[in-house]
Write a structure and sequence with these properties.
This protein has 9 helices and 11 strands. By secondary structure, it is an alpha+beta fold. Among the domains are: 151 residues, D-Maltodextrin-Binding Protein, domain 2 (3-Layer(aba) Sandwich); 79 residues, ACT domain (Alpha-Beta Plaits, 2-Layer Sandwich), CATH 3.30.70. It starts with 31 loop residues before the first helix and ends with a strand.
């Protein structure tokens, strides 16, 4: 029997069937021009809303002038706005949102008054200039200063509304740190009003250090704040004892820096939370450490910067899309 005679005209159930071709309809790609027109429409609406916002800001400025001339720059209010927007949605990258709104908020301040920033910017520390530009806007005048004393003098003399200075650190080699020159009981004297960066560091050059901003204005609470206190005391009063007394009074302090001089010792402490000048616990602190504690001076407060968790971009996977959930990128 030939091999060909074994091939039956119809399959016997064991032969492999020839696959049938499946006709697949091509997926129509989105109309690129239509999508671009949609983006243009959204851009127009965004611009219209920004114009409307600027008009409202003008009304706010007029209301401030009518009510005794409240300052145009409100760092606490700005922090509250940014935190609220981050809390509304995480779909838009939070770090980008902070950057955009910092530029917008700075523009509204410039709309209300002349606004310049004195920045500690020696050649060996360019990062402070970057932090100041990113926080106060790329079109806000920045005045470069070669020394911290020049920054303080520029703000004190009124040539600049804000001064940006390096964050004090334990072990700083400077024998006469800049913060000692701002110690005052005058409520109108410049004091700390912000810490930079408030959001991500972005493309700031890699000095790696944070900055403090000084300026004038009323004490303002945001709900998530830190307060700076400077003590003037004898060397016999240790930092550990001061931290212990503050803790007993219900305050959570952290040592930042100290400076010894002919009159005694200055200690810079940071307290978690908002502590106004009038807080009775500061008087209690002074009383408990007398006579070795000569003075306790309120040095300012600032809105705590946005945390790394708040700035993290949500990671979206296929499962997240299917279930409507999203995880956060680590």
């Amino acid at each position: 029997m030939s091999t060909f005679s074994l091939i039956l005209p119809e399959g016997d159930g064991t032969a492999t069937a020839v696959p049938t071709a499946i006709s697949i309809m091509p997926v129509r790609s989105p109309d690129l021009e239509q999508l671009r027109r949609r983006i243009d429409e959204i851009d127009n609406r965004l611009q219209d809303l920004l114009i409307e916002r600027m008009k409202v800001v003008s009304s706010v400025a007029e209301a401030k002038r009518s009510n005794g001339g409240a300052p145009a720059h409100q760092p606490a209010r700005e922090a509250e706005i940014i935190r609220r927007l981050i809390g509304r949605s995480r779909e838009f990258p939070p770090a980008t949102l902070v950057r955009m709104w910092r530029e917008l908020l700075s523009a509204t301040v410039r709309q209300q008054r002349t606004f310049a920033i004195a920045v500690y910017a020696p050649p060996e520390a360019p990062g402070f200039w970057d932090l100041a530009r990113d926080h106060y806007g790329s079109h806000t005048p920045l005045l470069p200063c070669r020394s911290t004393a020049q920054v303080i003098r520029t703000v004190t003399d009124g040539q600049a509304a804000i001064g940006v200075l390096p964050m004090p650190q334990e072990g700083d080699s400077e024998p006469d740190p800049w913060w000692r020159h701002l110690l005052s009981t005058d409520e109108n004297a410049p004091h700390v009003i912000a810490r930079l960066p408030f959001g991500a560091r972005g493309n700031a050059r890699s000095d790696g250090a944070d900055a403090l901003a000084i300026g004038r204005g009323p004490e303002q609470e945001t709900g998530r704040d830190r307060t700076l206190i400077v003590s003037e005391n004898s060397p016999d009063v240790s930092r550990g004892r001061m931290i212990s007394v503050f803790s007993a009074l219900g305050l959570a302090p952290r040592f930042i820096a100290s400076c010894e001089h002919a009159e005694g010792l200055n200690t810079l402490l940071e307290i978690d939370g908002f502590v106004p000048r009038s807080d009775s616990r500061l008087d209690s602190f002074r009383a408990r450490l007398a006579p070795g504690l000569y003075r306790v001076l309120w040095f300012g407060s600032y809105a705590a910067p946005v945390s790394a968790d708040e700035l993290a971009v949500p990671r979206v996977s296929d499962h997240d899309i299917a279930t409507g959930t999203a995880t956060t990128a680590s």
